[in-house]
Amino acid sequence: MRPGVGNWWFARVSGDGDHARLIAVQSDAHPDGTQVDLDAAEAAGGVAGSICTVELDDGKVRALVLAESVAPNAPPLWFAEIRESSARPPATNLLAFSGHDQPAGCLLDDADLSNVNLGDDDQLGAVRWYPVSGIVNQVYVAPEWRRRGIGTALITAAGVLSVARDWSRLWGQGQRTALGEEFRNNANWWHRAEDLTHLAPPMTPADTGGS
Asked: Is pLDDT above 80 for 205?
């Protein structure tokens, strides 16, 4: 299997120090998982391989803006974060939507999401993981939205959100569906998921798999 491609990050901070951007880059220019200090000229310019920009205000994540190259066939995506604080272990869900007068990349919490008029079929996909360990528990994309890069967009956004929060980096264990195995093997980050040990049943009834 081909070598995996690592991710590294650099930060840009406004003059008042209140607004910051954490920019994730997918390339071999720096070691995987490192945050790099770039000089002002480098940080201000475009960096080859940039995949996601995290917008922070007073330390709070406001947006996860994906580069078009991450999912060129997907519609403009925005996200909602739903935390399961009472779960054991505590879990976080990142849900993907499009439209509904929300700007691409914006990140809503559950209270904000309740103010958006959404139907049952408006969620395009979701990823669920455990912030303490970084283990990804589930990745799901609605059947009609598959093969358009939405799973990749969700994993990318969730991974960068974890970095911005100083949570553990995402990784996958060896249990997944058939579609999940295909997804992992075709991804640049395949090396962050263990080899398949147990094939899980499909997440979508009457479907060949769920990912």
From this structure: no
Residue 50 lies in a domain: yes
Region 20-46: mean pLDDT is 84
> So what's the pLDDT on residue 76?
97
Reported pTM: 0.91
State which residues form the domain around 42: 7-199
Whether 154 is in a domain gets the answer: yes
pLDDT of residue 156: 97
Render 138-201 in DSSP notation, one character per residue: EEEE-GGGTTSSHHHHHHHHHHHHHHHTTPPPPBB-SEE-HHHHHHHHTSTTGGGBPPP-EEPP
- 129-144 pLDDT tens trace: 999 999 999 999 999 9
Domains held by the chain: number: 1
Residue 206 lies in a domain: no
Does residue 5 surpass a pLDDT of 90? no
The CATH number of whichever domain residue 161 belongs to comes to: 3.40.630
Helix (H) or strand (E) holding 40: helix 40-44
Nearest residue to 95 (alpha-carbon basis) of 111, 109, 114: 109
pLDDT of residue 44: 65
Long-range contacts (CB closer than 8 Å, 24 or more residues apart) made by 167-173: 167/131, 167/132, 167/134, 168/131, 168/132, 168/133, 168/134, 169/33, 169/134, 170/129, 170/134, 170/135, 170/136, 171/134, 171/135, 171/136, 172/135, 172/136, 173/135, 173/197
